[in-house]
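Hey,
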Amino acid sequence: MSIKEVATYLHLATADVEKLVREREIPCEKQGDRVTFRRSTIDAWASQRILALSTPRLAEYHSKTSSKVGEFSPDSAMMPSLITPERLNPEMTSKTRSSAIRDLVAMAEKNDLVSDPEDLRKMLEEREALCSTALPGGWAVLHPRHHDPYLVAESFMVLGRTIQPIHFGSQDGKPTDMFFLLCCQDDRLHLHTLARLCTMCMETPLLDELRTADSGAAMQDIILRTEAEIIRRL
């Protein structure tokens, strides 16, 4: 991809990408005066960058992406099309890292959301081996390293709350009990949706409320209400 294409993909201004290149903060390749980017590398870099953003910078990025996705979601809400009560499990029995990944994929498969569950599982394992998606506060946002539109039947999110917290590689060294799995068919929506979910988790009591929910329906109500609150702040 070119600088202009990467800027569009990342929902950034061209000048912002040029600055990242100058400061060597973004992976790229130089061929003389021409700068190019590999899509797969940029996707992995951008996803990890969003997960690592401080709250003020995340809010700024989320605001930028929200202003550029109207063609996909005129009312700005993403979660209503991604979740249903059946995709939210408040009693996931996973006890290890590998079983958590396997159980999330099984939940997606049960809801007829994936065409190749084993392929998705392997992609999630590869992504976690690159760098854990677990974050301080006991939550993780699993997602494939590459976005193949034929891998999933539709864009979706599933959520499992484990009965027993699992050590999943969070930088704070504490275990994780809230596991989101996010899969988007359109790679232009992936980064925005990831930023939206991170904003919801970091700027509202979403995680605390989800930990007290007693059903998938209750979890859905909490997520939709929280997203509506975030949208009102834009």
